[in-house]
Structures are given as structure tokens and as C-alpha cells.
Amino acid sequence: MTKAIKLEILRTLNRCGSYVLAESRLLDSVRIGVKPEPLAAETKAAIRELEAQGLIVAGRNSLDNEPQWKLTASGKATLSENE
Asked: Which string of DSSP letters, residue by residue, matches the chain?
């Protein structure tokens, strides 16, 4: 299931193009896109693993400090290899 979660994260961020996506919206997208529905903790763990691998990067929203995610070039390459 972890692979399905990671791929959905990469797909979701790829659809955002050059824009960032708030973590709450990313969690919602994965919840909708992966069946059976993963736990939020599973999705957050997958996000952290992808970040550690350099496939996604985070910034912070200056108003509420929520992480905002973006796909890296390495993330795009990994997604294309696994599609």
C-alpha cells in the first residue's frame, strides 16, 4: 500500500505543475485516490519518505505555517519511471 500512496502523492503534485499544494489538500487527494483509504499517519509517513529521498520539497505558508509541497525534477523522473 505504501507504493500506491507514494505514487498518488507524486501524481497529485505533478498535476499541480509549478504550484505548491497545502499538506491538508495533499492528504485529501491521497485519501480519495487510494483504495482502501489510507490512514493520515500512513500518508504523512510516505510524504516524509519522499521528502527524505529528495522527490518532493516543502515550504511553509506564512499565515498558518502549514507545509506546502512541490514535486522536484527527481520526483518527476521517478513518477515517469513508475507509470
From this structure: -HHHHHHHHHHHHHHTTTS-EEHHHHHHHHHHHSSSPPPHHHHHHHHHHHHHTTSEEEEE-TTT--EEEEE-HHHHHHHHHH-
* Domain covering 2-82 in this structure, CATH number: 1.10.10.10
Q: Cα–Cα distance between 20 and 24 in angstroms, integer?
A: 12
Closest CA to 40 of 52, 50, 30: 30
pTM of the model: 0.93
- Over residues 36-68, the pLDDT tens digits come to 999 999 999 999 999 999 999 999 877 888 899
